[in-house]
Write a structure and sequence with these properties.
Two copies of one chain form a homodimer. Chain A is of the alpha+beta class and 269 residues long. Chain A has seven helices and ten strands. Chain A has two domains: 101 residues, Alpha-Beta Plaits, CATH 3.30.70; 139 residues, 2-Layer Sandwich (Alpha-Beta Plaits), CATH 3.30.70. In chain A, strands 1, 2, 3, 4, 5, 6, 7, 8, 9 and 10 form a ten-stranded mixed β-sheet that branches. At the A-B interface, strand 4 and helix 3 of A face strand 4 of B.
């Protein structure tokens, strides 16, 4: 037994959310945490591994840069390079490991995060293929993107997002800060990226429900402020479906957060 | 009973091959033909519907423009528009119907085809995500694309493709004509499109195995002619995996075939 071998490792993960019931362990369904813990436990000779995730993602939501950390058992010793290769060999293709790096033992993947970026993909192409259907929300009519951008401006800053959360009663407060909302278009896909210090349960999907209603013209962009102020989920439009949403990156320092920029469709990255 | 209602309809279909054991009906696995026939039979009030496909696609191969036809029962009468909407509502997202059009009763989706286009997607980006892994073949090293284009020139024309078919003994002859092999690059994805009058079992995947070996430098492009002339599968490199392959279009007239041109990654179309 060698205590120096006990390390905390931070893992950056991408996964196709269509295949799993979200990140978090659940009794009767397959989740990313479950599959990854099982594989890690196998690699560490049966020593049980528990992952600490940066966030929960719902069933159907995808991830390109989910972060999770765990403490290695004292033995067997496995280098980060060996571990990366072994994991990508053993895991299903729907889960890929991008990086593994040592972090301080007291590191907390959730509480040490400075912020997160999520991208939501809208398909403006009118027709759905089996491929795009998994990774975008199909729009049935044209959208007024300028109005959506106007509405998004109201969301930037520190607000009580009670109008944009599901199960508000389960959390102590709904105050969060959105730093940026970026709009990027690649061919027929409109990508809306939210960068903030943290997001509530289904918050991005609630915000996208609002932006979509504004885009369709069923809601005036100026209503956004009033809906925020109401602090009431009933006042805001419906929740957008999960399959257009990608957790892009969890930031552990402010510089990488400021530099984050979407250059390509998330599912091509 | 109204005989005028008996029509043959041609259906253009896209599907995500990862979800099915290919097109063709099979005893113990889920295939696209099976799912579609079951849905059509339900819509036509239980009258059994049999689909005649333009081709067989292997397990894992995707389609953007697969064609199949069937004869409607005399009743109930369902218009092509109604049928299109009902099918896309009832079918899983992994199967989408693009068009439905009446064709002569004697039309044969397989034998009336003038040609087909297939596109194979190579991922030159070195790293795989869960999304790209489903729809492309990841290259582990850089490719010499010019050499691949040189090799492709040897394949164009009418040849005996016995070196590029699996289960040669099951077919009377292996002579086919390839009209064009187009190379298109979109970001890190190299798309190679084959247009020909017909393709043998696993032929495109065998041809891609050759082009990949040439790209890696393990085979000289000039070897292509010699391998073709050998008419022996053992002489050619290994078969490429199915998940990079897309059946793009089945052509029933020469003009649409000549005009066919890849403008975007197949899984974004």
């Amino acid at each position: 037994m060698n205590d120096e071998n006990v390390r905390r490792l931070l893992v950056e993960i991408s996964y196709d959310g269509s295949e799993y019931s979200g990140w978090q362990l659940q009794p009767r369904s397959s989740t990313v945490q479950q599959v990854l813990q099982k594989t890690l436990t196998k690699l560490f000779a049966g020593h049980p591994i528990t992952l600490q995730g940066s966030s929960r993602t719902d069933a159907g939501v995808h991830a390109l840069g989910f972060s999770a950390s765990f403490v290695t058992p004292p033995e067997p010793y496995i280098s980060t390079d060996q571990l990366l290769n072994a994991l990508n060999r053993l895991l299903p293709h729907a889960i890929r490991i991008h990086t593994i790096q040592p972090v301080p033992l007291e590191f907390n993947a959730r509480y040490d995060a400075k912020g997160k970026a999520y991208t939501y993909v809208l398909n403006l192409g009118r027709e759905e293929t089996p491929f795009t259907a998994r990774y975008s929300w199909l729009m049935r009519q044209s959208l007024d993107i300028e109005n959506m951008q106007t509405a998004a401006q109201f969301l930037i800053g520190t607000h009580d997002f009670s109008s944009f959360v599901v199960n508000r009663k389960n959390i102590p407060n709904a105050i969060r800060t959105i730093f940026r909302v970026d709009f990027n278009q690649f061919d027929q896909f409109l990508c809306i990226t939210f960068v903030g210090n943290g997001f509530l349960y289904k918050m991005i999907r609630c915000l996208m429900g609002l932006l979509e209603a504004v885009g369709r013209g069923s809601l005036d962009p100026s209503e956004t402020g009033r809906i925020l102020a109401a602090k009431n989920r009933m006042m805001a439009p419906k929740t957008a479906p999960p399959h257009g949403l990608f957790l892009m990156k969890v930031f552990y320092n402010d510089i990488t957060m400021k530099q984050f920029n979407l250059k390509q469709l998330p599912f091509l990255m």
